[in-house]
Design brief:
Blueprint (H helix, E strand, L loop, with lengths): L2 E2 L10 H13 L9 H21 L6 E4 L2 H15 L6 E5 L4 H12 L3 E5 L9 H7 L4 E5 L13 H11 L3 E4 L15 E5 L10 E5 L25 H39 L3 E4 L9 E6 L4 H10 L2 E2 L15 H6 L6 E5 L6 H21 L6
Parallel strand pairs: 1-11, 3-4, 3-5, 5-6, 6-7
Antiparallel strand pairs: 2-8, 7-8, 9-10, 10-12
Helix pairs in contact: 1-7, 2-7, 3-4, 7-10, 8-10
GO molecular function: cysteine desulfurase activity; iron-sulfur cluster binding; metal ion binding
Pfam families: Aminotran_5 (PF00266)
Keywords: Iron, Iron-sulfur, Metal-binding, Pyridoxal phosphate, Transferase
Length: 379
Amino acid sequence: MTAYFDAASTEPLHPAGRAALLTALETGWADPARLYGVARGTRMLLDQARGRVAKVLGVRPDEVSFTTSGTQAVHLGMLGALHARRRVGRHLIVSAVEHSSVLHAAGTHERDGGKVTTVPVDREGRVDVAAFAEALRPDTALVCLQSANHEVGTVQPVAEVAELCRAARVPLLVDAAQSVGRMDVPSGWSLLTASAHKWGGPAGVGVLVIRKNTRWRSPLPSDEREGRRIPGFENVPGVVAAAAALEAYRAEMAADGPRLSALVDQIRAGVPRTISDVQVVGDPVVRLPHMVTFSCLYVEGEALLTELDRLGFAVSSGSSCTADTLRPSHVLEAMGVITHGNVRVSLPRGAKATDVDRFIAVLPEAVTRLRRTAGVTTP
């Protein structure tokens, strides 16, 4: 049986989410904007789900909107904030290790005549707070900073950057896709985005939170749905399932998070002890509890992932030079670390210690075989 170690890509559907989804498919199918009985019932389900998500995030229900994905939440959050603050200026600040959804929106802004400043990171993948302070200008319209990195797990100094933004009266958008459900996000931000399938909810549900008194204007044509923020018919069953999964997942992570973190520590220690020419990347302490990333010299990441899949492990790589990108991970490049033979292990809810032990046991021989095939001999 394959051990699934790619929770950072998507977490398996939580049983609480599955049960809520099946129920909501029967009771929450009507148009929540209508006034007849079955529609009012669907509206109640939607409002209750909004309140449950808001409670976990520590915000007001009317600040929460549901999108079709985390990517859509990022795009709408960024472009809407930039659009609303055009009179202030058109300067955007992002970190060098943001998710591609943030960087793509930044590219759109730049092609439309805006200016973008990219803030560097250190070798652990953490942004330079001083560089953020230097980048802030009178015409800065928006700052974007992820809560934690999606490839190496390093937790970012959101609180410190939020304080800088507050003093400069500039909104901060936090992409919290990797941390929501696993840890609390520091306060001080103006906009927050997340994605339900990262915490065991169904795919196709994203979250966009816009705090009160934050200037935001939709970059899309007007629509009456979701407080005029998100166009289109609401996916009420998906939203209900997402809310149920988030509540259950957050409660479980309070107890299971430390156990997963200990398993990650085991991998962080075991990989360099048993494999030569390997680099474990990301902050070893201030990190997400479930994620560890390492890079092996003289090995192609895709080949190593295929070999591990054959051995019964589903993992991902940040350095997958696919036909789509033809280049290694922008995160690893920005950190200045090894990009070859990169493996990201992200443990899902309930990951077994025996599977982690087996992973550590089979990995050295897998790397040795691939290096031998490539004509490389290491001690």
